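Supplementary notes for students who missed Thursday's class. We covered one full example, reproduced here. Read the sequence, then the structure, then the short commentary at the end.
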Amino acid sequence: MTMTQADRPAPPARPQRRSFTAAQKAEFVRGYEACPDGKEGAYHREHGLYSSHITKWRAQPGKDAARAQRQRADQIAVLKDRVAALEDDLAASQRTVVTLGKAFELLEQISKSSDTVPKSGRC
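Structure (token representation):
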């Protein structure tokens, strides 16, 4: 008798790939570097790691620092643009205040001069 699709056993589930946080990676590297000579292999076996993991993670802080520096530089550029735009807005607001102050002074002078002008007898 032949097996049908329903009779076939399901393939085994694909194992999940392990992932580690930056803090975990740093801890593994510190633990590895603290091992006495000749015990590094035991450390790898104990934690289920390969020597390539440690080699790669040792180089990673430099990459992470470079990435963080680029992100900071990008943030600084965005903030500098924002500051420049706000300074332009402030300058425009200050010009508006000066203009309104001059308009107020002019209106006050007109008002005072109209008070001193004698009124004619006409209606």
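Commentary. The radius of gyration is 38 Å. The chain has three helices and no strands. If anything here is unclear, bring it to office hours.
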